[in-house]
Amino acid sequence: MDMSCESLFTLTPPAAPRRKQRPAKRHLSMENQENQDPDINRKLTFSPEVKAEEPLVVSSADSEQQEQQKCTFHQLTRDGGSVQFWRSLSGLQDCGWTVPATQRRSAFWKLLKAAVCVILEKCASHLNKKNCLGCIFEMGGQLSHSCLSEDVQHFDQLLKDACHNLKIVPLLNTCLYVGASLGCFCLNQNNIISIGKMIQKISNAWSPIAELKKVRELCPQQYISIAEKYLAQSGLENVLDTFL
Fold this sequence. Notes:
Distance between the termini: 119 Å
């Protein structure tokens, strides 16, 4: 009996099965390349829309404030710190009077009280118009304006809100430009505290409107007029954005 001389250990194992080969990538023909959408990459790739930047609109109040903030000490000393220098910054070039040097402290205190009275009155008036539908939609008939028929209690509450939210820095800036234009700017810590107490007294009064009227009557009319003139400029029309 013939037996093969090869053993199980010498037999060659069968070849392992091969994995199925992927088909080769098909290249686009010239015809398909011509028909291909040229914007296909833009459509398949997400790209957020970039909006064009809107031009920055600067109000007259902001532009005037920026001009005032650009003023340097070099310009101040070059002009000798004169009253005319401050009047050009505050827009009070036609102011025809100046406080004597011996009356600066008392004059500045009178100016502070006058400025507070004028600012509070304007703020209360603007708050009243802000809540009036007739003023908002610019209606012509007086019956459409609730701001003309409100009672005293309504104005008392508006004045209380104005006293509660009145900002310190804009008020002091107003007194800086007006006071320096009159040659009587001499602010100290006692002035600030006294103004705070006066505003608190008006707010806590039984009738804030009557209390404000009493304080205004004690202020000289010339200080009331110059404060009104400064606040009536085009850059300070919206007192709510400035002082509240």
